[in-house]
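cache lookup: miss for this entity combination. No prior model stored, computing from scratch. Input as submitted by user K.M.:
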Amino acid sequence: MIVCSCLAITDEDIEQALVEILSLPDAPLPTPGIVYRHLRKKMVCCGCSPLAVSTIYDKIDQLAEKGVVCPYAGATAQGRLLKCASDTPAQKLIEHAPVVRRRRRKPAIEAV
Ligand code: FES
């Protein structure tokens, strides 16, 4: 699925970037900016930001379930992403997904 039409970034590109980012010792919060920078891209119109946040949130869930990333790191990142997305269109996409989502776990840790 294309997430960013300006830069032709797919959900698979985001998934691969998340695996690499969340495997870093001091993994940064995987915001769209961090993920796009990791992919050596720079946002153009930012119209994809809400969908990118929602995709990142979902991919973290999937990667933790597969055991590819640490569930603790994933839950921490999701909690921080939700906090950053508060009162934005991204929060609505995360909470009211247009597609059927799998069971969602609550973040184990609240970001400070
Ligand atoms: S749609 Fe992603 S930068 Fe424009």
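stored under new cache key. DSSP finds five helices and two strands in the chain.
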